[in-house]
Write a structure and sequence with these properties.
Elements (H helix, E strand, L loop, with lengths): L2 E4 L5 E4 L2 E3 L8 E3 L4 E3 L9 E3 L12 E5 L5 E5 L17 E3 L12 E4 L3 E3 L3 E7 L6 E7 L2 E3 L2 E3 L2 E4 L1 E4 L6 E5 L10 E9 L2 E2 L3 E6 L1
Parallel strand pairs: 11-21
Antiparallel strand pairs: 1-2, 2-5, 3-4, 5-6, 7-8, 8-9, 10-12, 12-18, 13-16, 13-19, 14-15, 17-18, 19-20, 19-21
């Protein structure tokens, strides 16, 4: 029941679910309200951290989480039981969860312009603004579609940065080499400075 969301920072957010029981059969209880953040490049034993911010609504069986262009996470659903008098009835409310990177005191970078489409292996430019220097990354993300705690088609692809990214206004990056890395379709383009992403811009990856 837990949803794993690939974030534009390269981390994975684990959110929703329950501490006890199992999915389906009305067997889940003790909802998880404190998300976990997974750091894939950290030393073993130090890769998971608890996030101080908590969710407020139980999200059990058939709940979903989805990354938005704002960098926030949309949370919805949960119907472990059809009975209205159940302790965890079908949930119709929607939440927006704010990941830690949006709580940073530093101003977010901004993507002023970016191409609407790019072909595999092609170089492209984006115009950016940032108020501080730091490690810069350009990434693509695809949210795919979600059900039963699975994000089918979900992926984050880090792009090669050829020019810029250190306080300059123009950044040149290279699109994924082929469909084995990024199948053709719609993606969110992210510009990340010192672990803080700009708002994502839609871009189409083509053959």
């Amino acid at each position: 029941m837990t949803d794993g969301i690939l974030l534009p920072t390269g981390h994975i957010l684990f959110i929703n679910g329950a501490h006890k029981g199992s999915a389906g059969g009305f067997m889940a209880e003790d909802p998880v309200t404190q998300p976990l953040l997974y750091h894939p490049t950290a030393q073993p034993g130090h890769r998971f951290t608890k996030i101080d911010a908590r969710t407020t609504i139980p999200r059990l069986y058939h709940s979903i989480a989805q990354l938005l262009p704002s960098g926030e996470i949309l949370l919805a659903g949960s119907n472990p039981s059809q009975a209205r008098d159940s302790h965890y009835p079908t949930e119709y409310r929607v939440e927006i969860f704010t990941p830690p990177y949006l709580e940073s005191p530093h101003d977010r970078p901004v993507i002023h312009s970016s191409p609407a489409a790019v072909k595999h292996g092609a170089d492209f430019e984006l115009r950016v603004a940032q108020t501080r220097s730091g490690e810069t990354k350009v990434r693509l993300s695809c949210g795919g579609f979600r059900t039963h705690a699975e994000g089918m088609g979900q992926r984050v692809v880090e792009l090669e940065v050829l020019v810029g990214g250190h306080g300059g206004e123009t950044v040149r990056a290279r699109a994924p080499r082929d469909a084995s890395v990024a199948p053709p379709g719609a993606y969110l383009l992210w510009y990340v400075v010192d672990g803080v992403p700009a708002e994502g811009k839609w871009i189409r990856v083509e053959m």
